[in-house]
TrEMBL record, chain A:
Biological processes, Gene Ontology terms: carboxylic acid metabolic process; response to oxidative stress
Organism annotation: Labilibaculum antarcticum
Name of the protein: Pyruvate ferredoxin oxidoreductase
Keyword Oxidoreductase annotated: yes
SUPFAM superfamilies: Thiamin diphosphate-binding fold (THDP-binding), TK C-terminal domain-like
Pyruvate:ferredoxin oxidoreductase core domain sequence ranges: 264-367
One of the Pfam families matching this protein, by short name: POR_N
TrEMBL record, chain B:
Official protein name in the record: Pyruvate ferredoxin oxidoreductase
Cofactor(s) listed in the protein's UniProt record: [4Fe-4S] cluster
4Fe-4S ferredoxin-type domain segment(s): 39-67, 68-97
Originating organism: Labilibaculum antarcticum
GO molecular function: 4 iron, 4 sulfur cluster binding; metal ion binding; oxidoreductase activity, acting on the aldehyde or oxo group of donors, iron-sulfur protein as acceptor
SUPFAM superfamilies, per the entry: 4Fe-4S ferredoxins
PROSITE patterns assigned to the protein according to its UniProt record, in alphabetical order: 4FE4S_FER_1, 4FE4S_FER_2
Keywords annotated in UniProt: 4Fe-4S, Iron, Iron-sulfur, Metal-binding, Pyruvate, Repeat
Lineage: Bacteria, Pseudomonadati, Bacteroidota, Bacteroidia, Marinilabiliales
NCBIfam families for the chain: PorD_KorD
Amino acid sequence: MTTNNKIFISGDEAVAQGVKLCRPHVIAAYPITPQTITVERLSEMVEAGEMEGIYMHVESEHSAISAAMGACAVGARTFTASSSQGLLYMAEGLHYCSGGRWPVVMMNANRSVALPWSIYGDQRDSLSLLDCGWIQVYVEDAQEALDMIIQAYKIAEHKDVLTPMMVNLDGFILTHTYELVAIPEQKMVDEFLPVFETPNKMSFEEPKNLGFSSKPDDNTEFKYQQNEAMFNAIDVIRDVDQEFAEKFGRKYYDMVEEYQCEDAEVVLVALGSVCGTIRVVVDKMRAEGKKVGLLKIRYMRPFPEAEVKNLARRVNAIGVIDKDISFGYEGTVYTNVNSAISKIDKYVYKSNFVGGLGGRDITKAEIEEMFDKLFFGVANKSEEKVEFFSLNVETND
Amino acid sequence: MNRPKKQEFKFPTHIDEYPTGPQYKAGFLPEINAGWRSVRPVIDHEACVFCLRCYLLCPDGTILKENGKIEFDMDYCKGCGVCAHECPTDAIKMVKE
C-alpha cells in the first residue's frame, strides 16, 4: 500500500501521467480531438525535461503507428494515441504491428466516425477494428485509465503475449471531465514495470530479418501463434491485475467486473463509462427489490467468453448496450456476447440496445427502461430484437 | 557487419519451432531463384581490376568479394547482365546456360 498523492485532472491528463510513469523511450502521436490533451501534455513533459523519452512530431496517424513500430523494432518502449478517423487511418499499421508482435501501447479516445462528422463519443472506432489483433480494454473512469496504461505495458510486453494493446476511454465523458486521480510513486512503478526486453528487435550482435513475408506454407502457423498469444494474455491480465492490487491497492477484476450479479435475474452488459451510470440505476432498482445487475466487460479482445457463459447460466435475461452498430445486423458487443451464450445448454432472453451514438447521453431513466424491457421480455417470451435508444422521432417499425 | 552465411533451413515440425512473429535469424533463404537465368556471367580474373563497379551495381547483391576476387552467388544471380555491361575492362562475359 502507498500514500498516493491525488490531483484533480481530466482523463486525457491521467493517461499522460500514466505514460510518464512508464518511461517510454519514444512517443509518436498525432493530435486529434478528443485525445489532444494527452499528447499536448506529453510533449510539454518532454520539452520540460520531466521525462527522458523522445517525442516524434509526425505528419499523420499512419506515420505515428509506423514510427511506433519502428521504434519498438529496435527494442524501445513506445506509446501512441489516437481517436476516430485517426485510428481508422492507422488501420493498416495496426494489423502490421500485431502481426510483427511489437507491444506498442496506445490510448484511444472513443469517438464517433464520419459521416455525419462528429467529434463526440461512441465506440464505433475501436469496435470496428476488433479484428486487428490488438488487445482492447475499455475503462470506466480516469483513475482506471491511468492504472491501465501502467498495466498495459506489463501485459503487452510479457514474453508469452508480445501483442500491442489499446486502452480505450470514452471521448469527452472521460477524456475531458475532471476527477481526483491518485498518481502512483515513480519508484513503485519502476519496481512494478521491468525494463522492456524483446527477442524481436534489430541488433548488430544478432542480425535478424524483421517483419518478413510468408508464403501459404507458413502464414497459417504465424496466425495460429498470434491467436494463442491472445489467449495467453487472459492469464497474464489476471496475474498483472493481482500484482497491481497488491502494490497499489486498486483492483479491477481482470477481464470483467460483475456488479450486483450474485442473485440477479436480469443483467445489462456494457463497456466503458456508461457502467458508472448503470451502477447508480442498479442500486436504485435493488432498493425497490428488483434483482438487477451489471456486467462490465473490460476486455473485448481477448474476449471474456468463460465469464459471459458463467453469468448466462445464472440469469434469465441479458441486455447488451452497444455504443456502435454494425450496419445491416446488430451491435458488435451483442454479436460477441451472443456467440458465447450460444455455447451453453440453456435459453437466456437477450436484447440489444444501441445507444449513445455520436455523443448522445444514455440517461438513468433510459437504463431503467432497458431493465424493465428485459423483465417484460422474459415474462412475455418476447421476440429478441435490436433496438435504437432513443430516437427523437417516430419510425415505421 | 559481416554478410550472414547462408545456412540450410529446416522447416519447423512443431509450432514452438516457429519464431515469435515474422522475425528470424538473418541468412536463411529457403528458396533459390537461379532458375530465372538463361545466361550467366563468367569472369576473367586476369582482366579484372577489382574496381567493384559490378559489386555496387548488381541489382540482386549476388556479387561477392572473396579473398580479393570477384565471385558470383549463382543461387541468386538472375543473369541480367548489368555487371558485364558496366565492367570497364570487359572482364565479364555473359554465356548461355
